[in-house]
Write a structure and sequence with these properties.
The chain has 449 residues and is of the alpha+beta class. The protein is 37% helix and 10% strand. It folds into 4 domains: 160 residues, no CATH class; 85 residues, no CATH class; 69 residues, no CATH class; 48 residues, no CATH class. α1 packs across α2. It is globular, with a radius of gyration of 24 Å. The two termini are 39 Å apart.
Length: 449
C-alpha cells in the first residue's frame, strides 16, 4: 500500500468531504481516479461516497505519512462532535463503527449526518483571499443550520451534480429560504458553532439529566416539561421553537431523551442556557466519545468508543478473520456480562435471534442491532434488586442503595457527600436525584450513559 505522495492538512473548520477533494487536487488526480486509487472506491461507485465521509476516512488515513492522531483528525473534520450531543452511547458507537470498521452484517450503515452541501458565498471569497482556494466548512453543514455564523447571511445549498460541489459554480447553488427571521437563524448558527468547537463529550441521557437539573434551578418542575411552554411563547427566538416543531417533542421525547435530533433539541438548550458555554459546562461528561487504541496482538492503531471497547468489539483488524456469528457471540458474552447464550446463528443485524438469559432461564427474541446499540435485555433484570444497585452506582457514584424493595417502593439510599442515609421512593429519586438530607445533587459529570 503506497503512501499519499503529497499531503494537505485540513484548513480551519474544513469538512472531511472537502478535505478529501483537496488531497486529490494537491496530488494532481481527478476526483474519481483519486477515490479509486486511495479510497478503494470503484470507478462506478465514486459518486456514492458519503457526504459525511465514513469508512473512506479510515482508508485515506492509512495512506498518510506521519499524520496526527486518527481520532483528533477525524473530530476536527467531522460534524460528529455536534451531532453526537443528541445521541445515546449506543447510537454513537453504531456511527463510529461505520467510520472505523469495515462494513459487514454486524456493521450496517446508520443515518447520515449530512444529506446536502451548504456554503456561504462570503466565506468562499474570504477563503480564496486567505488560502488561495475555497473549501466547505463544517459549521455550515450542521443539522438545520441555515445561516453563516461568521457573516450572518443565509447559506446556499448545492443543487448540481454530485462530486462537483468544489467547483463552487454559484449557478449550482441556491440561497436557502426558510421563512424564519434571519436574526433567529443567525442565533441558531452561532450557538451551533460554539457547541461544535467546544470539545465537549456527552450523550443524550447525560444531556437529559442536565436539562432536568437546569429546570429545577430555574424554578420549573424537572419532571414535567409543559410548565416551560408559557415562557417559551414569550421567548425572543420562539420562531425557532415553532419551526423546529419542538412542542410535540417536549411532550413525548425529552423525558427519556430517545430519538431526539439536534434540530429538535437545540432550541430547548438555547432557551434554558442562553450562553452556550454554560450548557457545555453543565453537560460535559469529561470522557472522550472517541479514543484511539493500540491492539496488543497486532500492534495496529484503531479508533472506537469506550462502549464498543467495553462490549468487546475489539480490534477491527484482528476480528476480520472471525465469522460474524462468532463475533456476535463474543460480543453478546461480554456486553451481556456472560448472562446470555446465543441459541440461533447470526443472519443479519436486523434479523431476530434467540438468546437464553441464564439467571432466569427465559428465552428472549430480539435483533442484534437492538441488543448491541439500544441496550435491549431480558425484562427480568428490571425486577432484580441487584440490577438497580448496579445501575445507581454506575450513574451516580456518590449515591449508593442500602436497601431496595421495588421500583415504586421506598429505598434506603446513602450519600457519600454528607455521609447520611435517607429514605425515598426509588422512582422519585430516579426522576429527581438529590440527597434528601443535605439537598446536594450528584457531583458534576455524573449521569446515565
Amino acid at each position: 500500500m503506497n503512501n499519499l505522495p503529497n499531503y494537505a492538512a485540513p484548513y480551519p473548520d474544513e469538512l472531511a468531504y472537502s478535505w478529501v477533494s483537496h488531497q486529490a487536487e494537491v496530488n494532481g488526480l481527478p476526483l474519481t481516479s483519486f477515490y479509486t486509487a486511495y479510497l478503494g472506491v470503484g470507478y462506478k461507485r465514486a459518486s456514492s461516497i458519503h457526504l459525511d465521509v465514513r469508512e473512506e476516512f479510515t482508508r485515506l488515513y492509512k495512506r498518510l505519512y506521519d499524520p496526527e492522531e486518527m481520532d483528533k483528525l477525524y473530530l476536527k473534520t467531522s460534524t460528529f462532535p455536534y451531532e453526537s450531543i443528541s445521541m445515546t452511547t449506543g447510537q454513537q458507537t453504531h456511527y463510529i463503527n461505520n467510520v472505523f470498521r469495515p462494513a459487514d452484517g454486524l456493521n450496517r450503515p446508520t443515518r447520515a449526518l449530512i444529506n446536502e452541501i451548504k456554503i456561504c458565498p462570503d466565506c468562499i471569497k474570504e477563503d480564496h483571499r486567505k488560502y488561495g482556494r475555497a473549501y466547505i466548512h463544517r459549521s455550515h453543514n450542521l443539522s438545520d443550520v441555515h445561516a453563516c455564523c461568521m457573516h450572518h447571511r443565509p447559506l446556499s445549498v448545492y443543487k448540481g451534480k454530485k462530486m462537483h460541489e468544489m467547483d463552487f459554480d454559484m449557478n449550482d447553488y441556491e440561497e436557502l429560504k426558510t421563512g424564519i427571521p434571519l436574526k433567529d437563524e443567525c442565533a441558531y448558527a452561532d450557538y451551533s458553532h460554539v457547541l461544535l468547537t467546544s470539545g465537549m463529550s456527552t450523550d443524550a441521557p447525560h444531556v437529559g439529566t442536565a436539562i432536568k437539573r437546569r429546570m429545577g434551578d430555574l424554578g420549573y418542575d424537572p419532571n414535567a416539561m409543559s410548565p416551560i411552554l408559557p415562557d417559551v411563547h414569550k421567548w425572543e427566538h420562539k420562531a425557532l421553537w415553532d419551526a423546529h416543531n419542538c412542542e410535540p417533542c417536549v411532550k413525548s421525547k425529552y423525558r427519556k431523551m430517545r430519538n431526539v435530533s439536534m434540530s429538535e433539541l437545540q432550541p430547548l438548550l438555547m432557551f434554558l442556557w442562553p450562553n452556550p458555554d454554560s450548557f457545555v459546562s453543565a453537560a460535559n461528561k469529561h470522557e472522550a466519545v472517541i479514543r484511539q487504541y493500540t491492539c496488543l496482538d497486532c500492534g495496529k492503531a484503531y479508533c472506537a468508543t469506550p462502549q464498543s471497547q467495553r462490549d468487546g468489539w475489539g480490534c477491527p483488524y484482528c476480528k476480520r478473520t472471525v465469522s460474524e456469528t462468532e463475533r456476535f457471540r463474543q460480543i453478546v458474552q461480554q456486553a451481556g456480562n456472560g448472562e446470555y447464550d446465543l441459541l440461533t446463528d447470526f443472519e443479519a443485524a436486523n434479523k431476530k435471534v434467540k438468546m437464553r438469559h441464564q439467571p432466569c432461564g427465559r428465552i428472549i427474541e430480539t435483533t442484534p442491532e437492538l441488543f448491541l446499540f439500544r441496550g435491549v435485555r431480558c425484562s427480568c433484570r428490571k425486577q432484580d434488586p441487584t440490577y438497580w444497585y448496579t445501575k445507581l452506582d454506575f450513574q451516580y457514584p456518590d449515591f449508593h442503595l442500602r436497601d431496595y424493595k421495588g421500583y415504586y417502593d421506598e429505598a434506603m439510599i446513602h450519600h457519600d457527600g454528607c455521609g447520611q442515609d435517607f429514605l425515598c421512593r426509588y422512582r422519585n429519586f430516579r426522576q429527581s436525584p438529590y440527597c434528601r438530607k443535605c439537598g446536594r445533587r450528584p457531583s458534576t459529570g455524573q449521569a446515565a450513559e
